[in-house]
Amino acid sequence: MTDTASRLLITGAAGNMGEMLRPLLRKPGRTLRLFDIADITDTDPEHEEFVQGSVTDRAAVAAAVDGVDAVLHLGGLSTEDSWENILSVNVDGTQAVFEAAVAHGVTRVIAASSNHAVGFWTHAEAGSNPLPGDVPPRPDGFYGWSKAAVEALGRLYHDRFGIDVVNLRIGSSFDRPPNYRGLASWMSPADTARLIEAALSDSAKGFHTVWGISRNTRSWWSAAEGAAIGYEPQDDAEVFADEFLADHEWSFDDPILQRVGGAFCDHPLGQRMR
Ligand code: 15L
């Protein structure tokens, strides 16, 4: 795969995914520019630089984007929150990133979307086929709605300005599955890094929307769109099955497993999750 990013900006670099990915995305000849409102004190001076700021500060975003080849946009609220916060951080914040990309001639943006952009799709609707990576939005809350808006902003900036955009509909990207639903939705740290490398490669030119999951035995979300950009996941949440299924039966009658978004579909709209 040809790498298009020798200078890669990671917004939200101090968050869960940013922290997990930094060591996996560092490589010779690449500088990671880390952007976050929170302080990052453990930068690797050979491979990383830190710019402190918020995605809600347009000047700070523009300065962070200036001089990079690609943006991995992880910054934003990562679960349900108030409408005002969601609009300001996730929607305005993402639009600021795309505007800055246009202004500074950055040609590739990888946007962290989420399974919650399409959380109300069900296993029953998928039927015997895996659910496509680019199935139309059916958000399961304001957070999921903002991720659908992020995806649509990507489409707009691709069509208007030709920016290469990859929307990642991330399942559960953590060290290990966070719960039994994760047996289907997990994406391991190593696979998350593989997906991002694929999204930076020449095979991902254009506009793509793909699931962000590992090759889980229990997944019912399509691997085809990821494969089309060169993503070859290696890990399988099945290694955690015994542990999680000790106190849970695996059944698609369970609404947590039946709907893409699981429990997010029942969480009160606009109520902060943390
Ligand atoms: C997400 O979008 C969240 O950011 C993450 O915290 C998890 O809840 C994940 O979805 C999931 O669905 O497991």
TrEMBL record:
GO molecular function: oxidoreductase activity
CDD domains according to UniProt: SDR_e
Alphabetical list of Pfam families matching this protein: Epimerase
Superkingdom classification of source: Bacteria
NAD-dependent epimerase/dehydratase domain sequence ranges: 9-179
Keyword vocabulary terms for this entry: NAD, Oxidoreductase
Signal peptide (UniProt feature, chain positions): none
InterPro entries: Epimerase_deHydtase (IPR001509), NAD(P)-bd_dom_sf (IPR036291)
Family membership noted in the UniProt record: Belongs to the NAD(P)-dependent epimerase/dehydratase family.
Protein name: NAD-dependent epimerase/dehydratase domain-containing protein
Organism of this sequence: Rhodococcus wratislaviensis NBRC 100605
